[in-house]
Amino acid sequence: MGVGSVDFTALINPDAGGWAAFVVLVVSLVTSIARGWLVPRRTVDTLAEVTVRIEAVQAERLTESVEREREWRAAWLASEEARRLLADQVGDLLEYARTTDAFIRGLKQVAGGEHG
Fold first, then answer.
1. How many other CB atoms are found less than 10 A from the CB of residue 38?
2. What is each CA distance from 40 to 22, 25, 33, 110, in whole angstroms?
3. Whether the Cβ atoms of residue 20 and residue 13 lie closer than 8 Å to each other
4. Could you report the per-residue pLDDT of 27-46, keeping only the tens digit for each?
């Protein structure tokens, strides 16, 4: 044997036989239960049912969220269209106001020129 190697064959007692295996099995079983590696079938089934319910609720919420997003988007698009129409109308009104102002100023110049 080399340096740093362990001879595990010295740990095996052939006289202990079945008792050693039984003790190892019991210790492994208790350790597995204590660490949560072994759980009853009923617990696994309950967790599976809860998981399925949670997934169904999440899918329903996702569907509602997508529908809500579509509604908000449609409302936003309608609002943007209304804002664009309002901006166009305000632009037209400003153009009419400038035209009217120029027309009135022109009338004043013509009227002032004839009387003056």
1. 13
2. 22, 18, 10, 103
3. yes
4. 888 998 888 888 889 999 99
d(CA 47, CA 41): 10
In the block, residue with structure tokens 């049912």: 49
User: Per-residue confidence at 11, pLDDT binned at 50, 70, 90?
Assistant: low
Burial class (CB in 10 A: 0-12, 13-18, 19+), 20: middle
